[in-house]
Amino acid sequence: MTLDILGPSPVTTKGNRYVLLKHVYEGPKENVLLLLPFGPHLIAVYEDSTLIVWDIKAEEITAEIPFTNISISAIVHPSTYLNKILLGSLQGCLQLWNLRTNKLIYTFDGWGSPVTVLEQAPAINVVAVGLECGDIYIHNLKFDETLMKFSQDWGAVTGLSFRTDQEDPPSDLFQHTAAEGSGTGLHT
């Protein structure tokens, strides 16, 4: 895998205001499925469910974890969970891992459908879990407790995000998108 980064440089060469920085991170020959920037590290999950952690500056692998019992399908770093990542799987379970010790901390049973998306909620210990069946669960990791469930009936969940701007959307937004079949018809 090769990463090219273009950015401003305080030193100019031949009048250019930009310098090309190139970092090369060598890993397995399989395709990269997921990438996650993680502090001074870069985490990659490959199609064979091998998880590799690179030190960004040294361009060296600091950890390599092959997964044989699950196929990793989603990854997120839960806020305030130092050195930890949450993995979603095609088998439907979630696993919380400590990357400093390379140890599995906890396995969450899941909801009987492959995990497609994981997203950190604004609340501590809470993540959103999107499933292939169209269900979305808001789950408390600390207590392994589902807080709420949403469902969409038009396919797998492909993306999740949370708004924190405290503003309500225009009142006709949800009705308009629901009528066209391109969005969720939510009513408050």
From TrEMBL:
GO terms for cellular component: Pwp2p-containing subcomplex of 90S preribosome; small-subunit processome. Residues 165-188 are annotated as: Disordered. Residues 17-167 form the WDR36/Utp21 N-terminal domain. GO terms for biological process: rRNA processing. It holds the Pfam family Beta-prop_WDR36-Utp21_1st. PANTHER family: WD REPEAT-CONTAINING PROTEIN 36. This is WD repeat-containing protein 36. The gene is WDR36_8.
